[in-house]
Write a structure and sequence with these properties.
Chain lengths: 468, 212
C-alpha cells in the first residue's frame, strides 16, 4: 500500500460513514460562526426545533459588521447592521453556544481568534460559513469554508457530507530574500498559476520555505489557499506549531497535552504519499509582490509593470484582464512602484496578527504617512490590539498618522457602511482585490504589511527594502 | 427543496473566469438577515449603470431581451469563487436560475447550489466556449436542454454531452432531499463514532479547563 497524505489521514480519522463515489460523512470537531452568515444557520435550526449537537464546540464571534471605530457598540455605520448583531447574539444565547461578544476580550476576526484561543488544534476538522476558514490549516487542522445551509447541517449533526478533494503539494524550496514575506510567497504562487490553479484540490504547503516560517506567518499562506481556488490548504504541524499553541486558554494541558502532542507528531504525509499534482517554487525567485488587477492571480513583482492583456492567448483571460485594467484605471506598461495611492489598510485575517503589526511598525517608526493618504490599522483581534498596545505599537502608528482601530474585519470588505470611497486607490494587507470589495469602485492592490506600510509613507506603491 | 430532473431554457453566456460571489451579490445588497429579497441585487454592479437608483445597464447580458427569461447561466472557470455567502445562490434561485454551466466552480458555491436546487454542471473549457458561442448566435433557437438523471447537456438537435456529478449531490437534487433530515437518521453511527474517537483523541472532547 502506498503512503497517505496528511489530508487523507485526517479524512480517515474523521469518517463517520462512506457515502460512495469518494464522498464521506465527516465528523466536525469545531464550528465557528460570525454575525454576517451565522445567524441564518442558527435561526434555521431553531425554527426546525433541532438542538445544537455539542454546543460547547460551537463558537460565535462578532467581526464582520461590527464597527471598528473607537467606542463602538451595537450601532453600525452599515444601515441594518445592528439587526445582524442583535439577531446573532439572540440566536447564540438561545442555542447556548459560546459567544465572544463585542466587549469580550476574546472578540476578533473569527480565523484569528479560533487559533489564538487555542480552540483550533492540529488534526481537528473545523468549518465556518466563511471562505477563509482554510486559514486554520496552518495549525495542521483540516478546515474549510461552507455555506449557511451546510452550517445548519454541521450544527445539527456535528458532521458534513464532503466530496473528497484531489491532493496537491506545493513545495517551497530555498530561502526567501531579506524583506520578502509569506504574503509574497502566496501572491507569487497565485500569480504564477492563476486564481483557479488550485481548483478541486486540498493543498499541502511544504518544504524548507514553509517549515522555516514562524507560526504566525504560516496562517497568511493557508489563508489565501481559497484565493488559489483550493478547497483548503494545510501545513503539517511541527514543534513550532506545538510551542505556539501550548498554554493558550482552550489548549489541552497536563497529561492530555502530552497525549495530544504525541498524536500530532504522527500528522504528516508519508514519505511515499502520492499527490495528484505537485508544484515546486524556489523562494529565491520571489520578490515583494503586489496585485494590479481585480483577481488575486493578477500580480506582479513590485519592480514590475502592468502587463499587456494583448499578449495573452486565452480569450477569456484577456477579456478579464482588460476589464480589470479598466476598473483599476491602469494601462499596460505602467510601473507599479511609484503608482500614487490614496489609502493604506493594514488588517484582516490574512495579515493583522501581532507579528504583522510589528513588521509594519518597524517600517513606519519615526516616519510619517504622506499628506493626503488615509492610513488605517485594524488589529485582527482584541487580544492582538492589547498585546500591540503593551509594546507601544499603537503609538508608533498614531504618531505616524495612522488610525488605530478596534478589532474586526473592518474595510477588508465593504459591508454597506464604511468604505474607502469611489476610485480611491488602496494598498491593502487583505486577501481580495475583487471589484467593489473595499467599497463601490474602490481600487485595491494587495501586498504584505511591510509593503503597505512603506507605501503609506511614500504616498505611492513602495518597496520597504529601499526605505533602509 | 425543488426537485431537479430536466430543464430546457435559453442560456445566458457570461464566460469570464473568476466571477466571484461579491460580483454575484455585492455586500451592499445583503441588507437583511434572511434569504429573500436578494434577486434585485443580483449582479447589481454589472447589471445597473447606477446600482443605487437601479438604472439598468443595457449592455449587460441579462438585460438583453432574449436572455431575460434565461434559467441557465454559462460561466467561466472558477465560477462563484470568493466569499462563502450563500446569498449568491439564494439571489440566483430567486431570480429564476436553475442551472449554471462552467469549466470549474468555487467549492463552497458548488455545495451551496446543490443545497438550493440549482444544478452546477462542470464541462470542459472548449465545450463551454462552444456552447456560449452557439447560444449567442441564436439564443431562442439554441436553447440548452439538461437531463440530470441521464447526466446530459444538449443544444438544439446536437449531440448530448455527458457530465459527471457526485452521487450524493445528484440524489439531493433529483429527489429534492433535505440533507439535515437524512443525516439525523444516522444518529446511531455518529454516536458510535464519537465513542470510539473519544478513546483516540480525548482532548477533542474535553471541556476546556480554562475559566473563560
Ligand atoms: S478579515 Fe476579511 S477576509 Fe477575513 S474573515 Fe473578515 S471579511 Fe473575511
Amino acid at each position: 500500500m502506498t503512503g497517505q497524505t496528511l489530508i487523507e489521514k485526517l479524512w480517515k480519522l474523521h469518517t463517520v460513514a462512506d457515502l460512495g463515489g469518494g464522498a464521506a460523512l465527516l465528523y466536525i470537531d469545531r464550528i465557528f460562526l460570525h454575525e454576517r452568515t451565522g445567524s441564518v444557520s442558527l435561526k434555521e435550526l431553531a425554527a426546525r426545533n433541532i438542538p445544537v449537537r455539542h454546543k460547547e464546540h460551537v463558537f460565535v464571534t462578532m467581526d464582520h459588521i461590527v464597527d471598528t471605530l473607537p467606542g463602538r457598540g451595537d450601532d453600525t455605520l452599515m444601515p441594518s447592521g445592528k439587526d445582524f448583531i442583535l439577531t446573532t447574539r439572540a440566536a447564540a444565547l438561545a442555542a447556548g453556544v459560546n459567544l465572544f461578544d463585542i466587549k469580550d476580550p476574546r472578540q476578533g476576526i473569527v480565523h484569528v481568534v479560533s487559533a489564538e484561543q487555542g480552540i483550533t488544534l492540529p488534526g481537528f476538522t473545523q468549518v465556518c460559513p466563511d471562505s477563509h476558514s482554510c486559514t486554520l490549516g496552518a495549525l495542521g487542522a483540516f478546515a474549510w469554508g461552507i455555506g449557511s445551509t451546510q452550517g445548519t447541517h454541521a450544527l445539527a449533526t456535528k458532521t458534513l457530507e464532503v466530496a473528497k478533494p484531489k491532493m496537491m503539494r506545493v513545495t517551497f524550496t530555498g530561502k526567501l530574500g531579506p524583506g520578502v514575506t509569506s504574503k509574497d510567497m502566496i501572491l507569487h504562487l497565485i500569480g504564477k498559476y492563476s486564481a483557479s490553479g488550485g481548483s478541486g484540490y486540498a493543498i499541502e504547503f511544504a518544504g524548507p520555505g514553509i517549515t522555516s516560517l514562524p507560526q504566525e506567518n504560516r496562517f497568511t499562506i493557508c489563508n489565501m489557499a481559497v484565493e488559489f481556488g483550493a478547497f483548503t490548504g494545510i501545513i503539517a504541524p511541527d514543534e513550532t506549531t506545538f510551542a505556539w499553541i501550548e498554554g493558550r486558554p482552550y489548549a489541552p494541558a497536563g497529561a492530555l497535552w502530552d497525549q495530544a502532542v504525541a498524536h500530532w507528531r504522527t500528522l504528516n504525509s508519508d514519505a511515499d504519499a502520492v499527490f495528484d499534482q505537485e508544484i515546486v517554487i524556489d523562494c529565491a525567485d520571489i520578490s515583494p509582490t503586489v496585485t494590479w488587477g481585480t483577481s488575486p492571480g493578477q500580480t506582479s513583482p513590485i519592480a514590475g509593470e502592468v502587463p499587456d492583456p494583448a499578449a495573452t492567448a486565452d480569450d477569456a483571460v484577456r477579456k478579464a484582464a482588460e476589464k480589470a485594467l479598466q476598473y483599476m484605471d491602469l494601462t499596460p506598461g505602467m510601473k507599479l512602484e511609484g503608482l500614487p495611492i490614496t489609502a493604506a489598510f493594514i488588517g484582516s485575517c490574512t495579515n493583522a496578527r501581532l507579528s504583522d503589526l510589528q513588521a509594519a511598525a518597524a517600517v513606519v517608526k519615526g516616519r510619517h504617512v504622506k499628506a493626503g493618504v488615509r492610513a488605517i490599522v485594524v488589529p485582527g483581534s482584541t487580544k492582538v490590539k492589547r498585546d500591540a498596545e503593551a509594546e507601544g505599537l499603537d503609538r508608533i502608528f498614531t504618531d505616524a498618522g495612522f488610525e488605530w482601530r478596534e478589532a474586526g474585519c473592518s474595510m477588508c470588505f465593504f459591508a454597506g457602511g464604511e468604505s474607502f470611497g469611489e476610485k480611491e486607490r488602496v494598498i491593502s494587507s487583505t486577501n481580495r482585490n475583487f471589484e467593489n470589495r473595499q467599497g463601490p469602485k474602490t481600487r485595491t492592490h494587495l501586498a504584505s504589511p511591510a509593503t503597505v506600510a512603506a507605501s503609506a509613507i511614500a504616498g505611492a506603491i513602495a518597496d520597504a527594502r529601499k526605505l533602509g | 427543496m425543488e426537485k431537479f430532473t430536466t430543464l430546457k431554457s435559453v442560456a445566458a453566456p457570461l464566460p469570464l473566469p473568476n466571477i466571484d460571489t461579491d460580483v454575484i451579490i455585492p455586500s451592499r445588497e445583503m441588507k437583511g438577515t434572511g434569504k429573500t429579497g436578494l434577486s434585485v441585487g443580483m449582479f447589481a454592479n454589472w447589471r445597473y449603470s447606477d446600482p443605487i437608483k437601479r438604472v439598468e445597464n443595457p449592455d449587460f447580458i441579462l438585460n438583453k431581451a432574449p436572455y431575460r427569461a434565461a434559467k441557465i447561466l454559462i460561466g467561466g472557470k472558477n465560477f462563484g469563487c470568493g466569499s462563502s455567502r450563500e446569498h449568491a445562490v439564494w439571489a440566483m434561485s430567486e431570480y429564476g436560475f436553475r442551472a449554471v454551466l462552467a469549466p470549474s466552480f468555487g467549492a463552497i458555491f458548488y455545495g451551496n447550489c446543490v443545497r438550493n436546487g440549482i444544478l452546477p454542471v462542470v464541462l470542459s473549457e472548449d465545450l463551454i466556449t462552444a456552447l456560449a458561442e452557439k447560444t449567442a448566435a441564436d439564443p431562442a433557437k439554441n436553447q440548452i436542454e439538461i437531463d440530470l438523471p441521464r447526466q446530459t447537456v444538449s443544444v438544439a438537435d446536437g449531440t448530448p454531452y455527458v457530465f459527471t456529478i457526485p452521487r450524493a449531490d445528484k440524489d439531493m437534487l433529483v429527489e429534492g432531499l433535505d440533507s439535515v433530515d437524512l443525516t439525523l437518521r444516522r444518529g446511531g453511527e455518529i454516536e458510535a463514532f464519537e465513542r470510539a474517537d473519544h478513546n483516540v483523541r480525548p482532548w477533542a472532547y474535553a471541556t476546556p479547563a480554562s475559566s473563560n
